[in-house]
Amino acid sequence: MWAWLLRRIGQIIPTLIILSFMIFGLQQLMPGDPALILAGEERGDPLVLQQIREELKLDRPIVEQYLYWVGNVVQGDFGFSWRIRMPVTDLILQKLPVTIQLATMSFIIAIIIGVPLGILSAVKRDTATDWAANGIALFGISTPNFWLGIMMILLFSVELGWLPPSGYVPLWEDPVQSLATTIMPAFVLGTGVASVLMRHTRAAMLTALSQDYIRTARAKGVSEKSVIRRHALRNALIPVVTLGTIEFGRLLAGAVLTEQIFTIPGFGKLVVDAVFNRDYPVVQGVVLATALIFVLLSLIADILYMAINPRLRQA
Amino acid sequence: MSTTVATKAPPLERGQSPARRAVRRFLRHKLAVAGLVVVLSFILIAALAPWIAPYDPIATSWSNIRKPPSALHWFGTDENGRDVLSRLIWGARASLMAGVISVLGAVLIGVPIGLLAGLAGGWVDATISRIADAMLSVPFLILAIALAAFLGPALENAMIAIAITASPVFVRLARGMALDAKSTDWVEASRALGNPPWRIAFVHVLPNIIPPLLVQSTLAIAEAIIAEASLSFLGLGQQPPAPSWGSMLNSAQRFLDGAPWLAIAPGAAIFIVVLAFNLVGDGLRDALDPRADRR
Amino acid sequence: MRGVLTLLALLAAVAPAAGQPLRIGLKDDPDILDPTLARTFASRTVFIGLCDKLFDVDDKLGLVPQLATGWSWADQRTLRITLRPGVTFHDGRPMDAEAVRHSLHRHLTMQGSFRRGELTNLQAIEVVDPLTILLRLDAPSGAFLSQLSDRAGMILSPAATESMGREFGRAPVCAGPFRFVERIAQDRIVLDRFPQYWDAARIHIPRVTFQAIPDNTARRANLQAGALDVAMQVEPDDVPALRRNARLRIAQAEELGYQVITFNIANGPRSRTPFGQDARIRAAFEAAIDRQAINQVVYGGQYTPTVQPVPPASPYHLRAIGPVPGRDLDRARALLREAGATTPVSLSLTVPNSPDLRQVGEMIQAMVREAGFDLRLNAMEYASGLAASNRGDFEASLTAWSGRPDPDGNIYHGAHSRGATNEGKYADPEVDRLLDEARAETDPPKRLALYDAAWRIAIGRDRSRMYLWHRMNITAYSARVRGLQAHPDGLIRLQDVRLD
């Protein structure tokens, strides 16, 4: 177990190093010259371009740029945004609470929808209830987030006027307003995760229900309700716990278009804007930070899985 | 958007006809059959687009812009006076191709690399696994956006970007299956007999991979269709004036309250096809899972 | 669930009554809030509340004093500016001639300054007394003064620029009606009323927040839902619906800039096509396009079709060149025949990947097809498109210029052989001479004649680019906002604005 854990942690560092190569490689490949974008309508002035390149070290070889960046990152300095000249660390710290709030709310919504549906559809397998539950769950994974988001704004904000279409307010400033501005995006994101949770809960539940001890319990005349509650449910929640961490990680970074539609100032919007503006320090910093969070969450998921499911320890 | 964790189907029992049993089980799954019917009809629609589309999908008519659905134009007309139904039918080509071809690409990239990792082991495995981990740790859409921006906006490039981005899942799947197979007696025996690794991969591992691969592929197609729509929504997919569902949604954005049908039609089409692929995937999963018969 | 939603909505609807901030929705997130280093329209929208300038531009594009009280030319190359007494910066320090010298010096010399090009004629700055300053130019310039009505004329607190250096933009200190409070990147910028503002009596709002909402639908929906008081850069398509809404108002003014198609005439191998080499084929292309029809279909007829870079509001609008010609397919076909072009003429048009401009591209594609052009559209995201045009990797490119109050700022960059954004590399010695002469000319009628002559060569004869229209700056706002005026530069002056 300990050897496994050490090996697992040891894998994180090469993963991050490879990731940093990938980020730098991609930004070399991408068309578009950051200096041209920064110069805007002044781009015809060679001196302006030259000064920008010098200041941002764009005139140096890529290896030198990379080493310089790594050297700073190791010291906890992610550099500053070329476009708005704020330290990338500040940007990340500004966005992190927003993103965590949105991810948490989405995840709660996903659990509320996904887990009961999964249990229900397993218990009532091959009945109309099962199909309906599957249909609801698949709805979430089958609608493009941006489309669902736009439709919700149309309905709840423009037509009914119940919810503000955007305008995020921090939780600590005005909790009610904050929830009101994030409930729609959280729902949009949550439905997608709900589908995943539902399907895995269903599968785990079906497996659990076909186990020998359950059959024995049934044969002994234990009531179906108690079979489900006492025996099957506990096993069925394993995927929720382990998958949950990974899905939570995805929520932290995967909300790109949803954030754009609802103008939630989170990670996704930050990094997409940075990609389109070729604001590379921001791209590098945010992608590295999200990847780190994701990798750590996967590690936690693996540990949890081991802890819950000891049979796997030998694998 | 999320990737479902691949379920590992245990090796099929030999000596019976697993394929026939799987088909029988699949057909029992009414929703999955319905999904398959929908998928096949969309493929048919896409294939027959030139004959069944009532109008030319790029023929503009400035006097006839943003007209609501009518007998002449069932789904209305768009901002250039083009028939939305015809664009939807032609757009099915782009969207289905984006889904199927990019997943095919992902399989072709991911499976051989995954088999290599699993069978070779050692530093090859370690390197490949870390690269796959690194790619999986970047949000799907961000990687796809960066790749699509690099390749330039075009439907084919969007498909390449999606294929590359989706491949690590298949790397992991194939690697896992290869590791499983490696530990079985018959592979060890085959190795002892001096069969080269590539032969082992093709003769022993690949057949076992096909069931989980099928499941994962149908689900990945569903995701790829949404990914293409998202890239087109950001202007990185199909180029004007050719239609794709995503680019139709992209232009429809501007007219949401004045002409909602422009957004509803392609949105609903994406939903139905993706749902159908998901249903087929679910059905396949159940059908190919030997435990399903035990109840 | 429904009950909870209703409750939340009710709570959200109960807005605080008095002393509320003015919430302005922007299309783009502003870049750095440092007048020396800033380049976007979005940051100018914020500067208008934050940093006063030596001069402002009125709605007829005339100069009016702001931090200055007046100006005079001591001779052709010496500008004398008198300053407003009793003005203080947000840090409480006085705004005087020394501060003006300091700011202009910074704009002119700081590394990476985007103002250097605008102040290029400025040779020396002399403080005469605390309220008078002399600016010496290296050559006579008819364009110089108007530069002081934008960011180059913004005066920054010397104490702050010295202590903050390049970080000034993170907490700018100026002499505008509002002072900087905080900025949450890609979310909002908050400014508070500055009580010691020199014109404080005209400021009635305690706080302004700027929020970037790039999605047009979302920005408009925010306004309709009451989450914004002002939405800037509203889409022309939305105007009819907004007009029907009794709780909303619209202010619109024609922009200073224009939309244009630039042709690759001499920038690399892609210019060496019949289209790039023969002005008649380009004239045929132009004749096949119906600007007014595109304006009607894509922009609801809100924009002003044009054939020139200077908008009608400017005194330098070239009236003598006549009205915008309509579509003439016969002429287009005749021109192609005359040029001996083999039809269909193959051509690629690079368009930005925004939905409206893609639609413009689609319309142009359909229109020129009838004349005998096989036009391929190439939609590119901004950064890629910029790099491609710069290295000459285009044949025709749909692009825009944000506009300057002085005509030189709208003409020189695209038509002069050394123009900053002359990406088609059009070059004609006579045009260069005329534009250089016009730049130095201070007599308006003579200047106008020079621009007219330059137009007739660069556009009328050589078809180096095709001007399409002047866009409309449309601002939608809540009926609770009073005193808001539209302005050709698209910025909202916060003076006299009230919120009921």
From TrEMBL, chain A:
Keywords: Cell membrane, Membrane, Transmembrane, Transmembrane helix, Transport
Gene Ontology MF term list: dipeptide transmembrane transporter activity
Keyword flag Transport: yes
InterPro entries attached to this UniProt entry: BPD_transp_1_N, MetI-like, MetI-like_sf
Keyword Cell membrane: yes
Transmembrane annotation, as ranges: 12-30, 100-123, 135-158, 178-198, 236-262, 282-308
Subcellular locations according to the entry: Cell membrane
Membrane topology field: Multi-pass membrane protein
Major localization listed first in the record, in broad terms: membrane
CDD domains membership: TM_PBP2 (cd06261)
Segments forming domain ABC transmembrane type-1: 96-305
Pfam families: BPD_transp_1, BPD_transp_1_N
Alphabetical list of Gene3D superfamilies matching this protein: MetI-like
GO terms under cellular component: plasma membrane
Family, similarity comment: Belongs to the binding-protein-dependent transport system permease family.
Protein name: Peptide/nickel transport system permease protein
Species: Falsiroseomonas stagni DSM 19981
The organism's taxonomic lineage, starting at the top: Bacteria, Pseudomonadati, Pseudomonadota, Alphaproteobacteria, Acetobacterales
UniProtKB/TrEMBL annotation, chain B:
Pfam families named in the record: BPD_transp_1, OppC_N
Compartments where found: Cell membrane
Protein's name in the database: Peptide/nickel transport system permease protein
GO biological process: transmembrane transport
Matching Gene3D superfamilies: MetI-like
Residue ranges annotated for the ABC transmembrane type-1 domain, each copy included: 92-281
InterPro entries in the cross-refs: BP-dependent_transpt_permease, MetI-like, MetI-like_sf, OppC_N
Gene Ontology CC annotation, any one: plasma membrane
Protein family membership: Belongs to the binding-protein-dependent transport system permease family.
Topology in membrane: Multi-pass membrane protein
Transmembrane segments: 31-53, 96-119, 131-151, 258-280
Keywords from the UniProt entry: Cell membrane, Membrane, Transmembrane, Transmembrane helix, Transport
Automatic annotation (TrEMBL), chain C:
GO biological process, one term: peptide transport
Keywords (A to Z) from UniProt: Signal
One protein family per Pfam: SBP_bac_5
Parts of the chain that traverse the membrane: none
Ranges where the Solute-binding protein family domain occurs: 63-420
Gene Ontology terms, MF aspect: peptide transmembrane transporter activity
Domain of life of the source: Bacteria
Cellular-component GO terms for this entry: ATP-binding cassette (ABC) transporter complex; outer membrane-bounded periplasmic space
Extent of the signal sequence: 1-17
Gene3D superfamilies, A to Z: Dipeptide-binding Protein, Domain 1, Dipeptide-binding Protein, Domain 3, Periplasmic binding protein-like II
Subcellular location: Periplasm
PANTHER family listed in its UniProt record: D,D-DIPEPTIDE-BINDING PERIPLASMIC PROTEIN DDPA-RELATED, PERIPLASMIC BINDING COMPONENT OF ABC TRANSPORTER
Family recorded in the similarity comment: Belongs to the bacterial solute-binding protein 5 family.
Protein name, UniProt field: Peptide/nickel transport system substrate-binding protein
Lineage: Bacteria, Pseudomonadati, Pseudomonadota, Alphaproteobacteria, Acetobacterales
